[in-house]
Write a structure and sequence with these properties.
There is one protein chain. The chain is an all-alpha fold. It has one domain. It is built from 12 helices and no strands. It starts with a helix and ends in a 5-residue tail after the last helix. 58% of the residues are buried.
Amino acid sequence: MTLILTVVLVALIFEYINGFHDTANSIATVVSTKVLSPRQAIVLATVTNLIGALMGVAVAKTITSGLVDASVVSTHTIICALLGGIFWNLLTWWFALPSSSTHAMVGGLVGAAFASAHGSGSAIIWFKEKAGAPLWRADGLLPKVVLPMVSSPIIGMVVGFLVMSALYLLVLKWRPRTVTQAFGKLQIFSAAYMGWSHGQNDAQKTMGIIALALLAGTKAGDLAAAPEWLGFLKIETLGPNKDQIPIWIKATCALTMAAGTAAGGWRIIRTLGHKLVKLQPIHGFAAETTAASVLAGAAMLGMPVSTTHAITTSIMGVGAAKRFNAIKWSVVERIVWAWVLTLPATAFVAYLLMRLCQMAGWVR
């Protein structure tokens, strides 16, 4: 029982860190363009994150049943997975690198599950078609994580470039002051859209992790001695075609992410909003609208896509439309390295932690 509650606590710590780590991604542009003050932007992001987190469960169901074999997952597996993700999030936050909390969690889950299965590759669902569903609805690490990890940044950059180019044509004969005033107002809506899509995609990952942990604990009998008033913790089944994420998990994760969002993430805001490319309100509007649309589309498909990748590459695409050399490529290089290393690094850390648990005799 204590172990189950520890898992839930660690998961919520991850969600809180996710909030202040990824807040920068959703509000960096609106702060850097000076449309909103940092305090105003955080309030906007907190509210829209909360609303978005309560909408939909497709991403959560991918985490619970679409990436690893639930039969090899124990409460120790979940703790090790989360600790691997927390370690990487804090490390990249310290170095002001906008890495992916999404891939940190997924990498940790894959590494810990692999260790739980004693090195058996069957613990990981690489590709699994759904009966009667189109191919793009398939489950597994490759279609749900790896493919979007590659495609979403490309889509973000290309669409950001196209949207910004179209806006340049639209405002070609406008006065600069009119452009700034108009898009200063519009960017408030695009920032709200970004915050909503961020909450919809990111909060669901922790919902899935908590549900998976409670399912493992229920099956292992860890909750058998739980008092009757804690009966809501028991989850008997989680299927890819069933909405089995309890409302209390949704609300708790949404509020925790909102609290983390309120804490802010100023290091990463400076990297995205100031070091990557100089932005005006029209650029911020284009980047936020592009990134938010990528995230919203991925959430509908149950793909745990990186908010970081979406907004960063959207900013790059917008900057390239402005002027190709407007992008500071030395900063881009550091960011890309953080992206490339996230999955293997978190998987390795979680794998080692799980192996230590096994060697200590805490788990078989």
